[in-house]
């Protein structure tokens, strides 16, 4: 598409040696996606405004610190490294750290097989926890089975805020927020009431966008995929 046809100013940048031409205002993550270059992400979804929470999508752009590609806008002549050894090591370490607090079983992985955090772990060859103390500790964040539709496992939550943005920005229900500090920080419903007693309408949007086993379909939770 030419600049005249699109009605927008087009800029050129290079991602992993590949020249990409995109409209001004496009994020690096979007530009990479259009060019067929995969940059993993946990907190972002194309249906939502990016917030740069998880930092899995960081890339090198020649600055002092790594840039979150889901929120960083492309610039003319920008040179982006999205697949360097340093970047891959960063993502692997961050994945291992997120797994350190993860429960031993993921309801999403066992029932539907689409736990995005565990998929990243497989991609990076993580077969055992490098930092297992959090997952084995006695002070867990607990579960919430009060909803008839959605099973909540706070221990599996990575505070990516996808569920909050889905509830607020997509469904406009404004039910989910955050509560607590430090290790005890977690998602909350209304004024930190059980999900089943809150104003949640059980639309399932939060469950659909959750990348981990934190919010899963209660009707399939406990079921396991059987490979024959």
Provide structural commentary.
There is one protein chain. With 228 residues, the chain is α+β, with helices and mostly antiparallel strands. It has helices at 3-6, 28-34, 85-99, 107-111, 116-123, 133-136, 162-170, 205-209; strands spanning 10-15, 18-23, 58-59, 67-68, 79-80, 143-144, 150-153, 176-179, 186-189, 215-217. Helix content is 25%, strand content 15%. It has two domains: 8-83, Ubiquitin-like (UB roll); 91-217, 2-Layer Sandwich (Alpha-Beta Plaits). Helix 3 crosses helix 5. The protein is built from eight helices and ten strands. The strands form four sheets. It has a three-stranded mixed β-sheet, covered by helices on one side. Strands 6-7-10 form a three-stranded antiparallel β-sheet. Strands 3-4 form a two-stranded antiparallel sheet. A hairpin with a 5-residue loop joins strand 6 (143-144) and strand 7. The model has no long low-confidence stretch (mean pLDDT 90).
What number of domains? 2
CATH architecture type of the largest domain: 2-Layer Sandwich
**Which bin fits the share of residues in helices?**
25-40%
Radius of gyration over C-alpha positions, nearest whole angstrom: 19 Å
Which geometry do the CA atoms define?
globular
Low-confidence stretches: none
For the record, the CATH class of the largest domain is Alpha Beta
Round the mean pLDDT to the nearest integer and report it: 90
Order of helices and strands: HEEHEEEHHHHEEHEEHE
| Major sheet description | 3 strands, mixed
